[in-house]
Write a structure and sequence with these properties.
The mean pLDDT is 92. The strands form two sheets. The protein has a three-stranded parallel sheet with strand order 1-4-5, covered by helices on one side. It has 79 residues and is of the alpha/beta class. The chain is built from two helices and five strands. A hairpin with a 2-residue loop joins strand 2 and strand 3.
């Protein structure tokens, strides 16, 4: 039997035009990013969760949530 591996990639850009720092803003006492990360980590289907970001604050939050982080260059994090 083949075991499927499913990767969840959560893109979380630091810059935002509409709402500054929206990924780290609190919503019901949690950063908005935390809702996506927790959903992915708690999924019975997802085997690995990664946050891709260009922002150190977002990276810190993701790491505190036990999520792997891939830092990407600013030139790959534009609108």
């Amino acid at each position: 039997m083949i075991k499927m591996e499913i990767l969840s990639i959560i893109p979380a850009r630091g810059g935002s035009k509409g709402l500054k720092n929206k990924n780290i803003r609190l919503l019901s006492n949690k950063p908005v990013l935390q809702y996506s990360v927790e959903s992915s980590l708690n999924s019975k289907y997802v085997t690995k969760t990664v946050v891709s970001t260009d922002d150190q604050k977002i990276s810190s939050i993701a790491k505190k949530l036990n999520c792997q982080v891939i830092m990407r260059p600013k030139k790959l994090a534009t609108n």
